Amino acid sequence: MLKAREAVRSLKEYHPPLSGRAGLRLDFNENVSGCSPRVLAKLRRLVPDRLARYPERQSVEHAVAEFLNLSAEQVLLTNGVDEGIHLLCGTYLQQGDEAIIVVPTFGMYEVFVQQTGACLVAVAADPECGFVFPTASLLAAINQKTRLIAIANPNNPTGRVVDQDDLLRVLKAAPAAAVLVDEAYYDFYGETCLPLLEQFPNLFVARTFSKAYGLAGLRVGILASQAAAMKQLRKMASPYNVNVVALACLESAIADSDYVSGYVREVRAGRSLVQKELQRLHVPFWHSQANFVLLRIGDKCLDFVRAMRARGILVRDRSSDPGCAGCVRITIGTAAHTAMLLKALPECLQELSSCSGPALPPAKAAM
Amino acid sequence: MLKAREAVRSLKEYHPPLSGRAGLRLDFNENVSGCSPRVLAKLRRLVPDRLARYPERQSVEHAVAEFLNLSAEQVLLTNGVDEGIHLLCGTYLQQGDEAIIVVPTFGMYEVFVQQTGACLVAVAADPECGFVFPTASLLAAINQKTRLIAIANPNNPTGRVVDQDDLLRVLKAAPAAAVLVDEAYYDFYGETCLPLLEQFPNLFVARTFSKAYGLAGLRVGILASQAAAMKQLRKMASPYNVNVVALACLESAIADSDYVSGYVREVRAGRSLVQKELQRLHVPFWHSQANFVLLRIGDKCLDFVRAMRARGILVRDRSSDPGCAGCVRITIGTAAHTAMLLKALPECLQELSSCSGPALPPAKAAM
Q1: What ipTM score was computed for the predicted complex, to two decimals?
Q2: Which residue of B has its CA nearest to A38?
Q3: How far is CA A303 from CA A23, A308, A310, A317, A349, in A?
Q4: Entry pTM
Q5: Pick from A28, A41, A164, A237: most CB atoms within 10 A?
Q6: From the first residue on, what is the mean pLDDT of each consecutive set of 10 residues in chain A (367 residues)?
Q7: Residue B8: which of A80, A235, A241 has the nearest Cβ?
Q8: Helix ranges, A242-334 (H)
């Protein structure tokens, strides 16, 4: 009888809670205001002949490499960061290996690691210590079997970052492991470890155009490393993994840096306002360097999500993430979105506290 | 030191000869006339908000399932058939397993099988026997370790097909193997094994919108099987594997059946004309059920490709495929493209034979 590999059979099914997302979508860390008008103009100029041709990734890969100050051999465009993670796991992991992640974090690391049959080692960041990056525990978890370490920086869903010194310690401690630094939220933070690529053959950096650039629907990410490592990864990928529309739009997207920097400025200002308001309202939260904030509502977390939805705002319950009991993640958007959010926040919290019992835990988690 | 898995290191690099494809592109089996005007209209109506959202595959998957007379649980949309093959190999194959392919065939089976560390068993179809499907050799190659059998029907690059009786024998002989029937060229043939899905839990059928539908650039394929098997495969895929533009356009593409059937009629008529002309010119070829014809030019194969290119027509040298020494594959397009091809063909052959030596092998390969 036909039987999937054991590693696949033991995988959980993943159902992203996507359908019926009507309202202000502050639940998926997308750029809710959309992409640059130049991208749309490019999309509308596409001709049928272009759609009918197999995509040619190379010239856009060159342009993106130049944009990142890397050589073209160092950069692979991927069908979203998801594919980058998939390829990385497929290239380096097999049964008997170990892969380390720092939880809570982006859910797809676990999925793609477990597919390979490798053992997933989850090192926990402590919410009571501000979800600070657990460098010591991570270093202690590295052993002879470690073949992959995945670090989101800034991290999702906490918004917390890793100091470069800590990254350096990890990179040095695990020369036989692929160390992925996933910079999906780089634009909202501003610090990158791309310059470390030259020094560390085990470093891989991922970027995405799904967040700041407003192109989540187009599925385009980047995986970068030294040329020798990328040569191996490139063998694993379909030559036609990124579609023509994504390729065409990407060139327009990186050309319009004003659009992205303007949006990022708004998000940063909004993030600051929202965090101030949470402080004023005594809602515990974690200081974020990304385009979202994680807050702890407590037992009435789902009521809060519902109350926000009733006001037309979608936010994401993250209760089931490790260390995130009672937590909600809210994406920060433009100034207009932030104004809507700042109006709804106290109303919803008021609504919860007017029901029975204490709505909020002690404020000590706020850092 | 960082080291890719052995199976990855031993993989060859794959460089599709894509760049600089100027002229009439009869080299990649695309629909050179492009997609339905409805698809283009849909593309141009897309709004930035749609591009900025993560794609929701489900509703389009339902529509495609209905289009194929299957249930939604049986169908997974993939980032081209390439991703379908990748997922299938990843779900069923591991080191120690065997996977059988019938060569010559589509090159990506080999790539994705070898990535898993499974052993690739290539059963050859004999060009001197018309590349007829080698049922007996294939059945003889099946053993306890066989976990995947990939069959392109019609096959690429030969255009040859497998009888349903032979498929049934394979399906019955290998109940513990995933049997992939890749129907990428189904539209030009007209026979499908989709109705067999009900009966065989080990059958997987792939389809693509890259060929007849003229959407190669959008990257969208289908993998179908019984619901239980698809549940395993779905766990392996990113929930956002197909981009929003592809999803939006796909609905318009399947709605415009007139466009596709009109195009397919032209291709079939063209195929017949080209095969008659090849007969008249005493050029050996194999009768094709796809949108291309494989012909044997012989030693001067590359000269022929160059002579065609000089006339603005790109065709594909397939000399390095098993059994295809001296062979060229020519895509069949619309009536206008066929007219150009029929003009260029005798001119190029004339040019070759006016050089020294016999240009053509004996005609016995023509079947």
Answers
A1: 0.92
A2: B48
A3: 17, 9, 10, 10, 10
A4: 0.94
A5: A237
A6: 93 76 92 92 92 93 97 97 97 97 97 96 97 98 98 98 98 98 98 98 97 95 97 94 96 95 97 98 97 97 96 96 98 97 97 66 47
A7: A235
A8: 244-255, 257-280, 301-310
